[in-house]
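Below is our example:
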Amino acid sequence: MKGLTQLAALTALLAGPSWAGGKTGTAPPVLSHEHGHPTGAFTFKTPEGWILGTYGPSPPILEARSENLIVRFLFRPEEAGYDSLHVDCMLERLAGPMDMEPRVKYEYDFLSGAVGERRVLDSAFVVQYDEPVMGQKAWRQRTVTLVGSGESLCVMTYCPAPRWKKSKETRALLDAIVHSVSFRPWR
């Protein structure tokens, strides 16, 4: 049964957003603002009102956030080992390693496939933090890693686990932001 669940998740990743074709009965979210990565390598879309910023060492991580939803983008202008990069990006958490439970609860892990010329890995899991982060202790994190065409990108989404479970609209919104990523020729 677990294999069928993983196959369904990978099919959804490769096919497009979960709201496409009316599959969930949820209207597609309005992503009215397009943002470009500082390198010009890719763009992505968010709804109005999302705040963008960067943090971290080189290369910096671009972050978009709104109302307890966070999407982070780690871009490298070279092809990295996609499984090792994926693991590194899965460890990109909302608090330090000593401030969370050491074990995470996986929804699915290391689903692989391809989108165009890029190899893809996808994992989703729940992290339990010791202290509330933005008012919540349990957060669902999804990490999608794309490697190919001389580039590497991790897209990491974060959502309070209770909100993820209860809101089709939230699931559709985060899925739509991930699927809005569009690579540009930049070299």
